[in-house]
Amino acid sequence: MIIKSTKRSGQARFFKNGKLNAAEITEDQFYEMFECLPPMQYRKDNKGMSFKMSEMTFGDITQGYVKKNGKYYSMNCRLHTKHEEMCGVCI
Questions:
Q1: DSSP SS3 for 60
Q2: Which of 2, 11, 54, 84 is deepest in the core (most CB within 10 A)?
Q3: Residue 14 domain boundaries
Q4: Going by DSSP bridges, is the β-strand pair 61-68/71-78 parallel, antiparallel, or unpaired?
């Protein structure tokens, strides 16, 4: 049996209710990802620090990471997801 996956159905698997969902991770996990591949779209300001992996998971989806208020987060995000939006979902 062949299962056909469209881009839309495949991307839907990475988002809950079409929104970003951040999971808290350890500082070691955060910096391991920061140092393993060249980060994309690195940004640091008063909202926090964020970057994206330079390797795509599916289509335009990659893994994003945020450091905010001494906590560390990981999330699936799109290439066009802005730093402010990534930091905004991290409580």
A1: coil
A2: 11
A3: 7-88
A4: antiparallel
In a domain, 1, yes or no: no
> What is the tally of structural domains in the chain?
1
Is residue 41 a part of any domain in this protein? yes
Written as six digits, the tokens of 42 are 């690195």
DSSP single-letter state for residue 15? S
Task: Go through 50-86 and write b for each residue having 16 or more CB atoms within 10 A of its CB, e for each that does not.
Answer: bbbbeeeeeeebbbbbbbbeebbbbbbbbeebebeeb
81 lies in a domain? yes
Q: Which residues are bridge partners to 44 per DSSP?
A: 49
Per-residue pLDDT of the chain (91 residues; tens, 9 = 90+): 554 445 555 555 555 656 788 999 999 999 999 999 899 999 999 999 999 999 998 888 999 999 999 999 999 999 999 999 999 999 8
Question: Bridge partners of 12?
Answer: none
